[in-house]
Amino acid sequence: MRLLPLLPACCAGALVTLAVLVSGCDEKLADLAGPSPNLQPTFASIQQEIFEKTDTSGRAACTQCHSTTGGRTPSSGLNLNRDTAYAGLVGVLSRGKAGAVRVIAGDPDQSYLVQKLEGKSGIVGERMPRTGGPYLTPGQITIIKRWIETGAKND
Description:
Blueprint: H1 9-33, H2 43-51, H3 85-89, H4 112-118, H5 138-149
């Protein structure tokens, strides 16, 4: 059944435009995700695809250093295990750099997490992961930044 002829011309045009935009956004996001093809700008996705998984480029899961698995103390006191990660990131001061906040909702550029992932000058210690790479791709970081820009919700 064809629905477009039943809609007023203005609505049909808007519907077509919306469909093109949505499909374009999905394709672009998938292209950005690179070695984490299922990565979305949500906390649940970042938790699963970045914190907990080794990606197809060989980048190690963040929880290899940032967890309490095996009774160890997580690196920099940042535990990225599923049940504690969000509470340890958003609005929380970094232990490594005085005054730096790990994730500032709405402000990815000032979020210390992003600075550490990008290896910005002024970070304390090394770019993450400390293994020397492979690092997150610019696309993966862009998706994390989008999550922060949209409010860093626990979604």
